[in-house]
Design a protein that fits this description.
about 75% helix; about 80 residues; mainly alpha
Length: about 80
């Protein structure tokens, strides 16, 4: 009984991790789409785009962006 519960909890952790990575890749790492441009709007100047990229961490590598997203979800 306890073994089954622990095994299911372990499986749940891996499934939730997989879902969060998939959602991150769909929304933030889609090729050809700049997430900063989606956030800033159509008529954003290059300075605004740069500021959005820096504030949201889009200028960081993908794994850092993912960790920042998880931190924002669970900590703040």
């Amino acid at each position: 009984m306890i073994y089954t519960l622990v095994r299911r909890l372990g499986q749940m952790i891996f499934v939730m991790l997989g879902i969060s990575v998939l959602v991150f890749l769909i929304f933030f790492a889609t090729p050809g789409v700049d997430p900063a441009a989606r956030i800033a709007g159509r008529n954003a100047s290059p300075e605004i785009l740069k500021a959005v990229r820096e504030s949201f961490g889009f200028d960081q590598p993908l794994y850092v962006q993912y960790l920042l997203m998880m931190k924002k979800i669970f900590v703040t």
